[in-house]
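User: Teach me something about this protein's shape.
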Amino acid sequence: MAGKKKHYEKGAVLIIVLFIISGLAVVSVELNRNVLLDHAFSITMEAGLASKPLLKSGESIAAYFLVRDFQKEKNEPGQESLQSLQKRLCEWVEAYSDRLKKWNLQVEVEDENSRFPLRALFPAYKSEKLRAEYHAGMLENMIVALLVAHGYEGGENAAKVCARHYVEQLLAWGGEKVLTDEAARWYKERTPAYYPPLRAPENISELLLVYWPDVEQELARKVMLGSEEAPGLLDNCSLWSIGPININTMKTVVGWGLCSTLNQAWNFMAELEKGRAAQGEWLRPGWYADIFAAHAVLAPPANVLDEQSRWFRIRVLADRGSVQNYSEVVGWMNKTRMTWVSRTVL
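Assistant: First, the predicted structure itself:
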């Protein structure tokens, strides 16, 4: 009996030991997991903290570069192409990046004045009314072209009616036109319900919220956001710039807005982009005049088009292998500095 009792006791001890070892193994695995997570988190935190001054540096480099370039007295009339300016900026940034041990810095400049200025639709003074009406017509033409480019099958004339209705509702959204009872009911019936703010859009996504009864939701989203077939309206509009649009960098969709028919729009912009590319690194004044005349595109009112820019969008990427941080800033420039009005960091 005593022998059996000792045998049972040894078995019980063995089971207890096994339980203890299993528990220690679980604790060890969890501790290792926590250590690895802490290590990964610390690396990410370190990279995030290190990237912030780098992103700021990239923004400052681009701002300094643009302002200094604007200050230069040019020996010949005309404007340097944006591609040429971007090329010189990239060379400058690459030389700076070579001095960084673990990081790669990339800086891209976009001309904000190449986009359609949404704020121009909402004039602050009566003297700007004519210019605002012209921009409303431009936006209609842009939407017509985008509708057809994204597969609208109702024909050009029907697309013009759809585009006009959208622009009227956008103006009502911003308080420039009276909101119809039908539109007010539609906003009230949304889930959740919302109401037009009666001021110019402050976020580009507001364009997606505007009442547009003529167009199916799927097509409307394509027109606004773009698809594989064609670009979208949002990527061709600026919340910040009030114009004028820079003809030297004007986006294709924006250029369509200068034309009254689709065939005119397609042919005009194809020729304009070809002529712009042929100018090379230096764009002579008025290089586009013959193209306007050849395609019977009427000259817009004053302060709609220009050959210079004051507004820019700068994108900076700080890359450290698996860790990437990104910033996008928008600002306006004078002869001494850049003033930022928007900054997004991811």
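Now, about its shape. The radius of gyration is 29 Å. The CA atoms of residues 317 and 326 lie 5 Å apart. If you'd like, I can walk through any region in more detail.
User: That's plenty for now, thanks!
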